Structure formats: C-alpha cells, structure tokens
Amino acid sequence: MQIAADLHTHTIASTHAYSTLYEMVCGAKNKGFTAIAITDHGPDMHDGPHEWHFSNLDIVPRVIEGVTVIRGIEFNIRPGGALDNISEKSLRPIEFALASFHECCFAPSTRSAHTEALEAVLHDPRVNALGHPGNALFDFDKEYIISRCNDCGKLVEINGNSFAIRKGSRENCTEIALLCKRYEVPIVVNSDSHIAYRVGHVDQALRMLEEIGFPEELVVNSSRTRLEAYFRGRGLHIFEE
Ligand SMILES: [Zn+2]
Ligand SMILES: [Zn+2]
After folding, report:
1. Distance CA 36, CA 26 (A)
2. What dihedral do alpha carbons 173, 176, 182, 187 form, nearest 10°?
3. 161 C-alpha vs ligand 2 centroid, how far in Å?
4. What is the pLDDT of residues 24-77, one digit of tens each?
5. What is the domain partition of the chain in residue ranges?
6. Do the Cβ atoms of 118 and 111 come closer than 8 Å?
7. How far apart are CA 64 and CA 31, in angstroms?
8. Which one of 24, 90, 106, 171 is most buried, by most CB atoms within 10 A?
9. Domain spanning 5-232: which superfamily?
10. Residue 22 CA to ligand 2 centre (angstroms)
C-alpha cells in the first residue's frame, strides 16, 4: 500500500514547525505525491497562526512544482467538542479540516468527556477528519465513535507521527483501523510532519494496515483517483483548476 498525498502537514505558520509552505510542497514532490494539504494549527493553540492565516489561504497557487496544494486547518478540540474561536469568514478558503485533541487546549480528562467531545465533532460540518485519534492520552469509546463516522461523513486519520511520538498509539491505531475496516469507514493516512524532510513518512502506519488486511479502497489518499472522488463528492474540483 502507498499514499499519493499527505493531508496533514504544518509550516512555520505554527512556530513549532520548521519549513515554509514551499519547502513542504517540495517535500511532497520529492515523495512523488500528487497533492499536499497544508493544515496549520487553529488559532487557539499557543503558537498557532492568527486567523488571518486561514482567511488568506486562497492566494496560494493551486499547483506548485507540479503538486496540488489543498488549503487546510487542524482544529483544536475544546472540552465539550467546541473548536477554535475563528470566524466563518476566515474559514472560507478551507478545503480540508482535521479536528484533534491537543493537551494545551483540552487537558486530558475522562473517557466519557473525550467521547462526548468527539461526538460533537462528528456533527460539526466544518470537519472532514478526526485527527490522530490514536493518542493514548485521549481514550474514548472507539466503537461508539467510529461506527457513527459514515453517517456523519467523517474520515478517520491514521497518523504516522503517532507511531513515532505518541506512546501507546500503535495499539490504539491498530484498534481504530480494525474498527474502520469492520464499519467500512474511509481513512486517511498522514504524516503530520512539522518539517519538510518528514512529509509522507507513514511507513509504520502502512505496514500496520497491511498486517490487518485493511482494504486499500478505503484509504482516501491512496491514489489520485480516490482523492479526486472524495473532494468531488464535496463539490471541490481540486485537480481541475
Ligand atoms: Zn495535532
Ligand atoms: Zn498536526
């Protein structure tokens, strides 16, 4: 299994990341990817960009160095399931949005508090995918949430970075992937890279998916055709501009 695009990456707009947008695009080009989504952190994170970063994203060329650039955001999930304080106007250019738990915006709490927050996110139309749900600090009722993703039109992310930095994530990611397989929930496999050299680093995640016999047709970013179909289904023609 391979991926054809990385849909979760950060630039120096979040200051704990170290590459420019152009460098990230070149990282994707070096991997032979057809597309990259730039998904900087929502403004509620301490070093996330001001919301104007998002409102101005439509000036980014659609294609740079032969790579299609998708304008994105990684929302911070707040207790109760609210997302970053950001205006609808600023979100207008956004084409792909993940929503994730981060300790700075949501102190790890109980399993039921995490589940309740994710349920609210499932019903938030601004969100495309649940970001790094394998994070062991934020245990939740996986079957309850995953089994509802299709009804709510949400993708589930298997996050390559989790395998490297989030302790206990491997077991959680495997459990989540098995549930996605059982409930036929489409997933995205992303690097969450914070530097250009790590764009597309998802080898461990792909190996795990192969080990459990995860169907490739459910991996939205496994081919340009599947990616195109996903966005077309949302009225976005990212490869046709
Ligand atoms: Zn994150
Ligand atoms: Zn991230």
Report:
1. 10
2. -80
3. 9
4. 999 999 999 999 999 999 999 999 999 999 999 999 999 999 999 999 999 999
5. 5-232
6. no
7. 14
8. 24
9. Metal-dependent hydrolases (3.20.20.140)
10. 18
